[in-house]
Structure formats: structure tokens, C-alpha cells
Design goal:
The complex is a heterodimer of chains A (334) and B (375). Chain A is mainly alpha-helical and 334 residues long. Chain A has one domain. Chain A is 66% helix and 1% strand. Chain A is built from eleven helices and one strand. The longest helix of chain A is centred in the first third of the chain and has 40 residues. In chain B, strands 1-2-3 form a three-stranded antiparallel β-sheet. Chain B has a three-stranded antiparallel β-sheet with strand order 6-7-8. A two-stranded antiparallel sheet of chain B has the order 4-5. In chain B, β4 and β5 form a beta hairpin. Chain B contains 13 helices and eight strands. Classes of the chains: A mainly alpha (334), B alpha+beta (375). Chains A and B meet through β1, α5 and α11 of A and β1, β2, β3, α5 and α7 of B.
């Protein structure tokens, strides 16, 4: 009994250390993307590398909070924290210490957690009623104005509808790519997928793996709402979209969550496609970090050279990557 | 091209944006009437930036009033002071030295370059292509430095005065040489920018067919300037201005009137501006730059139209004891508001701001009237 408790305590301790180390690394990722990719491509100095991921959240922590204009302010304010917890659980599920809990360390749980993250965006958009549109005190419904009796919509409402659409088809490529390794390992549990790859070599270096890695990368960018797939927070219409009303510590959590999600999705790739789970007690964590950095650099390059996609470009891209994902699964099954 | 007809009877939802919006450089309100994220109609309202410059000009000595017009716009400040001086010069029959005319043309074309580069940067920023936007800003920076070299400032140059240009804005050999060298750099940079822009298939697919404005509709809406020329109508007021008599240049047009045509139009027109400045540098005559030998007398209302980067600029006032009376200023964006509203129709709501931006709005200059709402 004492031994079991000691193992459990050791595992918890190992998870905490791994989470802390990876969390610290994740705070640097937005800065790396902006300074070493975007700024270099655009031939400018860019922000200090610690600014977007560390200093900005710290700064926001000490800012005065504004009361968000929301019909359910309690839930609205809780959503960034829920998002962060979802990403945290996702990361914990990827660590080898969590493999003892099959309900957590399985692809079903991972997809479920990612879906919660996406639903949070819908709720954030639906519950945000910022001053940037309807509430702006400007007399535009005056004598001579067109269509005086229309239903007025907040710009965040568009964002909520887009988030809902992204749940239905936008993130489909990512989920297909997640299930591609299952076709080889014949199991949805991470432990089996990792074990299979440690025996047979990384899934990435197979035909199905190569195709699904491309699909995963597209899904990764969609999940992070990065250009060109940032239609739910396109600056040219919905501005910040779901995050519009978040200020001070809530915005700080939004910033931190984004960095941590960048890292977690990169680690998810290294678990599913290379078979290396993250643990600070093994030098293989360097491979995890390398994969994360590769993803960040690639995302930075793609986003620097592409405009925001509207439905005209988004639908064919998603359709194409979905078909690729299906192809990868079919090849894997064969 | 088919004419777009607003389907007013099926309007479901209104999405108001502004007056503060990051995609807009200036404050304005736009009400977008949408059906499934497709804009069916748009209504733009301005009026939050009215400064009453015409009212302030009323009764001011004409020299002071001219200086004040420069504050109307931060982008085409030179155009305003030039046209204001030109108005008085026409009324008072003041002869302008040849050298001053050339310097005014150089300043005007440099201003066109910086305005068009700002347009390219803003357009690319609105489609969220930050890299192209930055490239356009780098090009613009060289032009801004040239303007600062001649005028002493980056925005308010104070170049034109009654009878010519300020002596400090005269161009010596060193300045002309730098102008010549930097124009080569700008041309090289612009060529590279245009080639990369056209080679970027993703960006081209994003801007092609968006915000299309047919030529007939543009004429009906009295659209002016590059926005009109981007619909295929070859109309440029510079061909009628006596200042441009010595210069050989082409009127650039594009066929489609969409965002792509507008962006390309500005890029190609910038090459023509470079060409005009080169001609001015090569043929600039010697002599004085300002004619002080003129007399003030009362005049009836005088009018002057010039072609500025955004279209036709109109200034008019009467002179009474050397003071300005009944001043009226009309900026090109006033004429282009109809086109901005029309261009949005039928496009995705994400493109609505882009459709407005394609007409190169300058609402701060356009805020010339004020309506008092009594509650």
C-alpha cells in the first residue's frame, strides 16, 4: 500500500515538474513566433521575445479590470479559466504518468477536451456584447437612414456563429489526423500508440503518417485561430472576436492559454506521430521541444505569407485537407 | 459586368461597425445589412471628425487661410495648400515662375507616391497580409524622407505660397541628385513589390472580384480619381491642368473595378508619378521660385479643381480686402462614399471593410458639413 502511494506521489510530482517546465517554455513561444519569424520576414526588429508570452500577461495582471458587458458575466469570465484548465488536462493526458488512467490518456478524451475548447469560443462570442458595434453611442438610426427596423447584431455574434461552424467542419482535419495513428496501432490509448511506435518506428515516417502530418499541421493552425484560418477573430470585421471584452487578468489568462495550447498541440504531434511522450526526466523532452519549435516556426512562416481566408478560400482548403485526412486513414487501414 | 442590385426586401440583420474599428484608419460608422454573412446593403455615416476649417477660414487673411488648409489632411496636405494658393492665384491673376511650377509638380507627385503606398499598405493590412503591408510601408518611408528633405517636415510641408513656393523648398543640385537616386530605389522596390504581389496566388484569389464596381455605376455615382480609373474610365484632371503641360505621362486604367484592379492601379500609377518626377528633375528651369510682384484686390468667388491622389479636389472662395469669404472645400472622398457603399454589396462581411478601403477613403478631410441633432 505504502509502495503504491509512493509511486502515485512520485508520478504526481513528475507531472507537476513536467507541467511547470513546459509551461515556462510555452510562454516563450508567442514571442519566438513574432520576433524570430514574423519580424524577421518583415525585416523589422519585432518585440522582445519575452514580451507577448510573459511580460504582456504579467502587465495585464496588474491592469484595472473593466466590467464586461455580457448577459452572463460569471460564465463569461470563467471561460478563459476553463480553456486554460482544458489545455492543462490535455497536456497532463499526454505525459507518460497519465497513461495509468486510460479514460484520460486516450484519443477520445483528447478529442473531447479539444471540443470543449472550441465550445468555449462559441460561448465567449455569444456572451460578449462589446461597445464596438451596437452599443457604440452613435446616432445612426436617424431620419433618412436606411432600414430602421432590422434586428441588430453584435460583431461578436458573427464570431460565435463562425466558431460553431468551425466546430462542425473547420476542425475536422485535425481530428482525422489524430485518428490516423490509431489505424496502425489499432488502439485509441496513447500508451499503445507510443508502444507501437517505439517497436515499429515513428508513424511520421510512413506514407499515411506523412500525409496525416500535413493534415495535422493545417488542423493545428485552425485550432490556434492563426492566419489564414483566423476568421473567428478576423481583425477586418470581428476584431478580437470571442476575446473582445476580456481585460486585465482574464486577458492575461487568454494570452497564457494560447502559448500553452501551441506547446500542447506540438507535444500531441510528437506523441502520436513520433511516439515520444513528454517528461522532464528523459532527454527525449528535447525532441518534444524541437517538434514544438518546428511547428511554431512553420506556423509563423505560413501566417506571415497568407491573408485571412474567407469562406471562398476556407471551404476548399478544409475540404482538401479533410480528403487528405481520409486518404491517410484509408492508407493506414490498408 | 452585371450590376449589383441591393435586395432590400430580404434584409434580416444589421451589423453596425465603428465609429472605432481597427480596420479603419479613421472614425466612421458603417451599417452593414447582411444575410448569412453576405452584405446586401451598406450605409456609411461620417461626421465625428468635423473641425469647421471653412468656418475658421472665413475672414482670415488669404495667406493664413492657405496655411490652414494644409491641416485638413495628413496625407494630401500639400494638395490642399497648393489648391488653396492656386485659387487665389487664379483670382488675382498671379504669374507663377516656371521653376516653382516644377517644384509644385514634384511635391504633388511625391505626395501621390506616398498616398498610393499608404493605400497599398492599408489594403494589404485589411486583408491581413502583414508582410506585404510592411513592404509597402518601407517603400513609403523613402518617399516620406524625400518630402521631409524638400519641405522640412514629414506631413506638413508648407511648400506652396501665393506666387510660387517657399524659398526653403527650392531644389539645389544636391537635393536633385538625392531625389534622382532615391527614385531609382523606389522604382526598384515598387517593381519587386508588384511582381511579388502578382505572383502571390493566394493573395490574388483573395482580392480578385471583391468589391467590384462597374464603370457605368461608377460614373452614375460620380466617382472620382483612381477609384474611377480602376473601373476602366480614363479620366484624370492632370491632363487639363496647365502645371502638367510640359509633362508626358499615361493615364492608367484597370478593367474590373475590384480590389485587385484598385491595388494594381495605384502601383502602376506610382510608376507614372516616378516618370513625371524624373522629367521634372531633368528639365527644371533656373530662376526664382516665388513671384512677390502682385497686388491684392477684391474678387468674386474663385474656383479651382486639381487632381490629388484620391481624385478631384475643389477649393473655392472670394477675396474681400485680402480676406477669405464664402470658402467651400470638397474632397474626393465625398464623391466616393457612394462607391464605397455600393462596393460592399454581395461580398462577405469580412471583405466589407476592404471594399470601403479600396475606394481610398479619407473621411477626416471629408467631414465638411455638420448637422445639429436637437433632442
Amino acid at each position: 500500500m505504502f509502495e503504491i502511494n509512493a509511486i502515485a506521489l512520485n508520478s504526481i510530482f513528475a507531472v507537476i515538474i513536467t507541467v511547470i517546465v513546459c509551461f515556462i517554455i510555452s510562454t516563450l513561444l508567442p514571442g519566438i513566433e513574432r520576433k524570430y519569424v514574423h519580424a524577421r520576414i518583415q525585416q523589422r526588429i519585432g518585440p522582445p521575445v519575452t514580451s507577448p508570452g510573459i511580460m504582456a500577461p504579467i502587465k495585464f495582471l496588474f491592469k484595472e479590470n473593466i466590467k464586461p458587458s455580457s448577459p452572463v458575466p460569471g460564465l463569461y469570465k470563467a471561460l478563459p479559466v476553463i480553456c486554460f484548465l482544458v489545455v492543462l488536462f490535455l497536456f497532463i493526458a499526454l505525459t507518460p504518468f497519465a497513461y495509468a488512467i486510460p479514460a484520460l490518456a486516450s484519443l477520445v478524451a483528447i478529442v473531447g477536451l479539444l471540443k470543449v475548447e472550441e465550445i468555449c469560443y462559441v460561448l465567449m462570442g455569444a456572451l460578449s456584447k462589446s461597445i464596438m458595434s451596437v452599443r457604440m453611442p452613435f446616432p445612426d438610426r436617424v431620419k433618412g437612414a436606411a432600414h430602421l427596423n432590422t434586428t441588430r447584431s453584435f460583431i461578436e455574434d458573427i464570431s460565435a456563429r463562425r466558431s460553431l461552424r468551425m466546430i462542425t467542419y473547420g476542425s475536422f482535419p485535425l481530428y482525422l489526423a489524430l485518428f490516423a495513428p490509431v489505424t496502425q496501432a489499432r488502439s485509441i490509448f496513447l500508451q499503445d500508440i507510443v508502444m507501437y511506435q517505439q517497436t515499429h518506428g515513428p508513424f511520421l515516417f510512413t506514407v499515411a503518417g506523412g500525409i496525416s502530418a500535413v493534415v495535422f499541421f493545417i488542423g493545428y493552425m485552425i485550432m490556434l485561430n492563426e492566419y489564414p484560418f483566423s476568421i473567428i477573430k478576423a481583425k477586418c470585421d470581428v476584431i478580437e472576436g470571442p476575446y473582445m471584452e476580456y481585460a486585465s487578468k482574464y486577458r492575461s489568462v487568454v494570452f497564457i492559454t494560447r502559448g500553452f495550447l501551441m506547446l500542447t498541440l506540438g507535444v500531441l504531434f510528437s506523441v502520436l506521430f513520433i511516439g515520444i511522450p513528454p517528461t522532464v526526466f528523459s532527454p527525449t523532452i528535447l525532441i518534444n521541444i524541437f517538434v514544438v519549435l518546428v511547428f511554431v516556426f512553420m506556423m509563423g512562416i505560413f501566417s506571415a505569407f497568407t491573408p485571412v481566408f474567407t469562406n471562398r478560400q476556407l471551404l476548399p482548403t478544409i475540404l482538401g485537407s479533410t480528403l487528405l485526412g481520409i486518404l491517410a486513414i484509408v492508407i493506414g487501414l490498408l | 459586368m452585371e450590376e449589383k442590385v441591393p435586395r432590400s426586401n430580404i434584409i434580416e440583420t444589421e451589423i453596425p461597425m465603428g465609429t472605432v474599428h481597427p480596420a479603419a484608419l479613421e472614425p466612421y460608422r458603417v451599417r452593414l445589412f447582411v444575410e448569412d454573412e453576405i452584405v446586401q446593403e451598406a450605409e456609411i455615416t461620417i461626421g465625428v471628425n468635423h473641425r469647421g476649417i471653412e468656418r475658421i477660414m472665413e475672414g482670415l487673411p488669404v495667406e493664413k487661410a492657405n496655411s490652414l488648409t494644409e491641416k485638413i489632411c495628413g496625407i494630401c496636405s500639400n494638395a490642399h495648400i497648393w489648391n488653396s494658393c492656386r485659387t487665389a492665384e487664379i483670382g488675382l491673376d498671379i504669374e507663377i515662375p516656371e521653376r516653382a511650377r516644377y517644384i509644385r509638380v514634384i511635391m504633388s507627385e511625391l505626395e501621390r507616391l506616398h498616398s498610393h503606398f499608404l493605400y497599398l499598405a492599408h489594403g494589404c493590412e485589411t486583408v491581413a497580409h502583414e508582410t506585404f503591408s510592411m513592404r509597402a510601408f518601407y517603400l513609403r518611408e523613402t518617399v516620406m524622407e524625400l518630402l521631409a528633405m524638400i519641405g522640412g517636415n514629414r506631413v506638413q510641408y508648407g511648400c506652396s505660397v501665393l506666387g510660387g513656393v517657399r524659398p526653403r523648398c527650392d531644389l539645389d543640385e544636391a537635393k536633385l541628385l538625392r531625389l534622382k537616386d532615391d527614385l531609382d530605389k523606389i522604382e526598384e522596390g515598387l517593381t519587386d513589390f508588384a511582381q511579388r504581389f502578382m505572383a502571390d496566388s493566394i493573395l490574388i484569389s483573395r482580392v480578385t472580384g471583391v468589391g467590384a464596381l462597374p464603370a457605368e455605376q461608377a460614373i452614375r455615382l460620380a466617382v472620382t480619381g483612381p477609384s474611377l480609373r480602376a473601373t476602366g474610365v480614363a479620366r484624370d484632371l492632370r491632363t487639363t491642368m496647365f502645371e502638367y503641360d510640359d509633362f508626358d505621362f499615361n493615364i492608367i486604367t484597370q478593367p474590373d473595378g475590384d480590389v485587385k484592379s484598385n491595388l494594381l492601379m495605384r502601383a502602376l500609377e506610382s510608376f507614372e508619378s516616378i516618370n513625371i518626377i524624373r522629367q521634372a528633375i531633368a528639365n527644371i528651369p533656373e530662376g526664382k521660385v516665388v513671384n512677390r510682384d502682385w497686388e491684392m484686390f477684391d474678387t468674386d468667388i474663385i474656383e479651382s479643381y486639381i487632381e490629388v491622389p484620391r481624385g478631384t479636389l475643389y477649393h473655392s472662395y472670394a477675396l474681400e480686402s485680402g480676406r477669405v469669404r464664402h470658402c467651400v472645400i470638397r474632397t474626393p472622398s465625398m464623391a466616393n462614399i457612394g462607391a464605397m457603399q455600393y462596393a460592399c454589396i454581395g461580398d462577405h462581411i469580412t471583405d466589407a471593410q476592404l471594399c470601403i478601403v479600396q475606394c481610398d477613403p479619407c473621411f477626416t478631410c471629408t467631414d465638411r458639413a455638420i448637422e445639429i441633432i436637437r433632442r
